Amino acid sequence: MFCLVDAILQAFEAVMVWERVQEKLSILSDAAKYDVSCASSGSNRKNTNKGLGNSSGSGICHTYTEDGRCVSLLKILLTNYCIYDCLYCVSRKSNDIKRAGFTVQEVVDLTIGFYRRNYIEGLFLSSGIFKNPDYTMERLVRVAKKLRTEHRFNGYIHLKTIPGCSEELMKEAALYADRLSVNIELPSEQSLKSLAPEKKRADIIKPMKYLSENIQRFSHERKLIGNAPSFAPAGQSTQMVIGASPENDLQIMSIANALYKTYQLKRVYYSGFVPISNDNRLPKLGTPVPIIRENRLYQADWLLRFYKFSLKEIINEKFPQLDLDIDPKLSWALRNLDQFPVDINKADYEMILRIPGVGVSSALKIVHARKFRTLGWDELKRFGLAYSRAKHFIVCKDLHSMPRDLHEEKLRQAILGQSKYAKSLSPQFSLFA
Amino acid sequence: MTRLVYDGSFEGFLTCVFEIYERRLQLAEIVRATLFQPLLEEEVLRIAAAANKAERVWSGLKRKISRESRNDVFKTFLSELPDMERHLLEFIGNAFQSPESVEKDFSNRATLYVSQTARKVHREKHRMEAFVRFQRTSDDIYYASIEPDFNVLPLIIKHFKDRYADQHWIIYDRKRAYGIRYHHDSGAVEEIQIKFEENLTGTFLPESAVAEEEPHYQQLWQQYFSSVNISPRKNTKLHVRHVPLRYWRYLTEKRNK
Q: Which residues of A19-42 are buried (b: 16+ CB within 10 A; e: fewer)?
């Protein structure tokens, strides 16, 4: 009889444990979701020890949220208790919300349980700052260490570096993690001062610099000695909140460009501010998330990194704000019509890449295929480039004699009138009206 | 017109290519047995797969096109599209005839077809690497069932074998009625066929068959999926473009929704 009661009690307790974990998960994933990074790319950790998992190349999005963002990692906070009071952050001290904290073991179990079921590529662990930066960082590192050593876990681990933590902890983190990130948070020091008074720009830049130097050094050593330890092999990234403070796109892109150049960051993420309070230093509740602006910033970022554009070409004192109606590549083309039309049978790869409507894969197809025969419009269409945009900027076998209207404003209207733009922009126009 | 009918295997297909060259057939078409419908006034050859003949065609291709392009040939074959044999035959013919590699001649129809079809198949392979959802059974097997658009099981073996090297797992293609199974002791992957009970039609195993923790993990994952959503940014169109509706039925996060 007692046995039966015991068994029932035990079963009941077990269910309670699961429910408690689920509640924590709901709080701590909700609090982590404003960190937009989800990349699981850039590392190459092989499963050599017949352990669990690997990470290679481009990473995998296992699912997408209902707002269309990639879900690749289990992205959670260790805790949302925080001693800081950054205005733009849901977990700020003064915010009246439910607080929770995972134990190290709970995070480890969740990661392994999700990974084995092929839900995720790995873990992205960040945290509110409790007690002090070192105390917090030490626990993040413990999770990573446990996964790597006790569970022989070779999946992807991204750890947030807590500003102000010691260099030793950062170094230990880098030995277990694939990627580390320090968020720059806001695009200028003034904004940081007014919205995140306890955070100092210097506390953010210092760890970035430290990581950048060591990532370079270790990667160099690894090239010389194959089995030298790896130090954050997928590099470091950062994030900026967009639209919470008054900086223009030129300021934002200049910072991003400097971070790529100075500290060799792998990615700069732009996070459109989602209003979360009624403080009058911030956009009011109900203000729409600047989704299009965020998208344009990413497009500009892509042009810098993959399309061989320089910052000045995309954005400068004369054009300090990215065009919301059209993408920055088209916008550049319209400002530089003297460089068009481009003869796709002759122009070099870099120039073909600059044609609006031509992406990396169609540009490559063009330069390969034209070695066999002169390309005409039929071929180009089948390569999958965007006819309606590209046709204004191209010369090929069949499009030599077509009269064209290379006048900026007219071209702009012609392209904007096309269905793709009309459809995608109409609801957004009304948002900004 | 001569029609060569084969068993549907890649070896069988390559054997047909061999026979066409061996017999110097001018007008020939290769048809898999499942799609074959006899017509009047035509010659039909039933071709049995022969490893040595297939091997000769394949090593001939090695001299003519890159490994990447040979992978594209295999992927195009796995597409199972009704006209893939015709395009592949043309592409292989071009490769053999031309003194230089034809694989980047994208304005040639066969080349473009192979490159584009291989890409589609590759995308499906990538989707399966993303969308497979294992359920842990009570006897500690991680089981997943899928119904991919193309026959991609042969392409995903390596990925799952490398990743889940210490697990015992099965991925089963319900559409094509075969699966792959890996056991960490042997370290090898084998092809299997399962006889399902008639009431077992869905993707998910009944609660009696799964490990005790399994429903909890499924629930945690569903919780996570709903918590990470930012509702002011809701964008159903984008969501469905990335996670097409036809895959929802085997995604844990969409179960019972």
A: eebbebbbbbbbbbbbbbbbbbbb
Partner residue opposite A64 with nearest CB, options B164, B224, B243 = B243
Hey, which residues does A153 pair with through a beta bridge? A52
Total number of residues shown for chain B: 257
For A117, name the nearest residue in chain B, comparing CA atoms only: B134
- The reply to whether residue A66 touches residue B239, judged by beta carbons under 8 angstroms, is yes
Spatial distance between the Cα atoms of A144 and A45, rounded to a whole number of angstroms: 14
Residue A70 and residue B233: Cβ atoms within 8 Å? no
The second-level CATH assignment, the architecture, of A33-307 is Alpha-Beta Barrel (3.20)
Q: Where are the domains of chain B?
A: 2-124, 132-254
- pLDDT tens per residue, range B141-196: 999 999 999 999 999 999 999 999 999 999 999 999 999 999 999 999 999 998 88
For B134, which of A60, A118, A371 is closest by C-beta distance? Answer: A118
The pLDDT of residue A35 is 79
Task: Provide the ipTM.
Answer: 0.93
Q: Which of A18, A25, A51 sits opposite B224 (nearest CB)?
A: A25
Task: Using alpha carbons, list the distances in angstroms from residue A111 to A104, A157, B85, B142, B176.
Answer: 11, 10, 45, 16, 32
Inter-chain CB proximity B242 and A70 less than 8 Å: yes
CB A356 within 8 A of CB A393: yes
Over the stretch A232-288, which tens digit does the pLDDT of each residue have? 988 999 999 999 999 999 999 999 999 999 999 999 999 989 888 888 888 888 888
The tens digit of pLDDT for each residue in A295-329 reads: 999 999 999 999 989 999 999 999 999 999 999 99
Contacts of B165 in chain A (CB under 8 A): 47, 50-52
Q: What is the pLDDT of residue A103?
A: 96
How many residue contacts between A and B have a Cβ separation below 8 Å? 153
Boundaries of CATH 3.20.20.70 in chain A?
A: 33-307
- List pLDDT tens digits, range A328-337: 999 999 999 9
The amino acid that residue B124 corresponds to is E
Separation CA B31–CA B46 (nearest Å):
10
pLDDT at B37: 87
Instruction: Measure in Å the smallest separation between the Cα of B135 and chain A Cα atoms.
Output: 6
In this complex, do B130 and A64 lie within 8 Å of one another by their Cβ atoms?
no
Residue A163's identity, in one-letter code, is P
- What tokens does A203 get? 């506390």
Cα first-last separation, chain B: 53
